[in-house]
Design goal:
Number of strands: 22
Largest sheet: 8 strands, mixed
Structural class: alpha+beta
Oligomer: single chain
């Protein structure tokens, strides 16, 4: 017979308080608490239990003097048993007060105990007292996610996410936005990633797609005159995963008629200010700085720069023109660039460190051809370049030091290559050095807008242009004349918002002119027949008085990840997928019965070895 089966059918009082609620105001009052046994301690016949629910901890005391039968039953308690207790609130003795928890001054002397559910031995510790200890592996935690969710740290992150939801709903309601749902089963359209496809049983051979975003639907809502739309919406992309990606994710989707870039900036900054104030009690300074795409790549090596540290990239191309150093000469003659990064007061790390930086970080992790470095010794001796002076003359080295602004004791790191690859490689090196040398201040919140993106980017594999954002992004009016002759020079009315080196949202002013939209489809290599097949409904809508409109999509998962200072999106999603797009707790995805496939008229062919 199980321990708690003795209590089957026994009625107990309803819960009167939570485990984080009791204080001096409840002294001598009868209470009923329900929760999980977090810890159990037997001190000379008196049993102490920390009872836990999502609201906190309460110490409960079982003494044979209070109730012998409850004390006897308490001897059976183990971690994670679910129990119900009734008793009276008393003050703890002065030496046992726990100032770290809200209920630390009181305890409950138990008069009645019911064991509601037992627990087997746990695969890992989830005690509130074990939060600072080494966690179990993520794989194990995801396998038993329902246990992992009991940890106060995980619960606090999901509570923070809930708080963010409420702020977002209230903010957009005050701004006059309508929350409108869009379809989850929609038509497959190219938006930059693979669609998740859903076969139709009633239309054999046809498929729905799960939305990568509600992009076309929210544009049609603007054509429909709804003026201001918002939705906290699930989106799906079948792409390779990282710590900041999931196959299903949540975005704050926003669209406005007659929108300008300034209107979107002001609206979004207001939301960020409201979120940070109401969730973290942090006051953000507005407006956020704005950096063009070109400037971001040249100065920080990234279109999502981390501005919490000051390590700007410098262009040393002019310093090394006609240097006679074959590597630089070949890159510069091909239109590439030589970039530098000054590491101030670097110290005297030896050759082994620089070799590892070159081989392990620069070549292997970053993918650059190699690292050149110049030391400016702190003892005042001449600069030391990793390339010998008969290969790279000292005059060129000296000019590069002057242009970079490097000073005594500094280290100048140099990469070369083609645009924009070398910029991105230097951006990765910049971030690596900041992390390794402790330059990043984790208390800072550094937002920025990245603007003036190219409308198009060249796809080397497909030998044609693709959209930098998506095919509905409006080109800048002053660049329209270039769209047929020099499409690579056309700038988009697009913008991203970044925070601490992570993109948290992006949007654009949309194309509302049918002819311009067809022209953009043509540049993207989508012929008229295909554009009508894929987007005929949108092109048709643009015939009937479509207003100018624009919007933004903000990554809610990423925002909550940053608000909670989590290392991964998986920490702020209740039941996330792994990097292999699996959910190990339930075994998703899974095979289905052949009868189900027959209903859908689908035949599965195993991949050959």
């Amino acid at each position: 017979m199980s321990h708690y089966s003795e209590n089957v059918g026994v009625q107990h009082s309803a819960r009167t308080h939570t485990c984080g609620e009791l204080s001096d105001a409840h002294l001598d009052k009868p209470v009923t608490l329900k929760g999980w046994v977090d810890t159990r301690r037997d001190l000379g016949g008196v049993i102490f239990v920390d009872l836990r629910d999502r609201y906190g901890l309460t110490q409960i005391v079982f003494s044979p003097q209070d109730n012998p039968s409850a004390h006897e039953l308490a001897d059976r308690l183990r971690n994670e048993y679910v129990i119900s207790v009734t008793g009276s609130v008393t003050l703890r003795s002065a030496e046992t007060v726990n100032p770290k928890i809200s209920t630390g001054r009181i305890e409950v002397r138990v008069e009645s105990l019911l064991i509601l559910s037992e627990s087997e031995a746990l695969p890992f510790s989830i005690s509130a007292h074990a939060q600072k200890t080494l966690l179990a592996s993520e794989d194990l935690r995801l396998r038993y996610r329902y246990l992992d969710l009991r940890r106060p740290d995980m619960q606090q992150k999901l509570i923070l996410r809930h708080q963010a939801y409420q702020v977002i709903h209230r903010y957009f309601d005050m701004q006059g936005f309508l929350e409108i749902e869009t379809p989850t089963l929609m038509k497959s359209t190219p938006e930059g990633a693979r669609d998740y496809l859903v076969p139709s049983r009633v239309h054999p051979g046809s498929f729905y797609a799960l939305p990568q975003s509600p992009q076309t639907y929210k544009q049609l809502l603007m054509v429909g005159g709804l003026d201001k739309y918002v939705q906290i919406v699930k989106c799906f992309r079948d792409e390779d995963l990282r710590a900041d990606r999931q196959p299903e994710f949540t975005q704050i989707d926003v669209e406005m008629t007659f929108a300008t870039e300034e209107a979107i900036y002001t609206l979004t900054e207001g939301l960020m200010k409201d979120l940070w104030k109401k969730v973290l009690n942090v006051d953000l300074s507005l407006p956020f700085p704005r950096i063009t795409y070109q400037d971001a790549l040249w100065k920080y090596g990234s279109d999502k720069p981390d501005l919490r540290f000051d390590l700007p990239v410098c262009n040393l191309s002019s310093s090394f023109e006609n240097s006679g150093f074959r590597v630089f000469d070949q890159v510069l003659s091909a239109g590439g660039a030589v970039l530098g990064l000054v590491i101030p007061k670097f110290g005297e790390k030896g050759r082994g460190y620089m070799d590892r930086l070159d081989k392990t970080v620069v070549r292997k992790q970053i993918g650059a051809g190699g690292l050149i470095h110049i030391r400016i010794p702190s003892d005042g001796s001449p600069p030391k370049c990793s390339v010998k002076s008969h290969v790279l003359p000292e005059s060129f080295v000296g000019d590069a030091i002057a242009v970079s602004g490097a000073k005594t004791g500094d280290l100048l790191l140099i990469l070369c290559g083609t645009w924009p690859t070398v910029q991105e490689q230097m951006g990765s090196l910049r971030l690596h050095m900041a992390q390794e040398l402790g330059y990043i201040d984790d208390t800072l919140w550094k937002f920025a807008w990245i603007t003036d993106f190219p409308l198009l980017q060249w796809d080397r594999q497909k030998k044609r242009y693709s959209s930098m954002h998506h095919p509905f992004t409006s080109p800048r009016a002053e660049d329209l004349a270039l769209i047929e002759t020099q499409p690579n020079r056309v700038r988009a009315r697009a913008y991203d918002i970044v925070l601490n080196g992570m993109e948290i949202g992006g949007g654009s002013i949309r194309i509302h002119d049918r002819e311009i939209q067809k022209q953009v489809f043509g540049i993207l290599g989508i012929p008229d027949e295909e554009s009508e097949e894929r987007f005929g409904f949108l092109l048709e809508a643009l015939r009937y008085g479509a207003p100018p409109h624009g919007g933004i999509a903000l990554g809610l998962d990423r925002i909550v990840m940053l608000l909670s200072k989590s290392a991964s999106l998986r920490e702020v999603i209740a039941f996330p997928k792994t990097q292999s797009a699996q959910e190990p707790m339930s075994g998703t995805p899974a095979l289905v019965e052949s009868e189900r496939l027959d209903e859908l008229q689908i035949q599965y062919t195993p991949k050959s070895e």
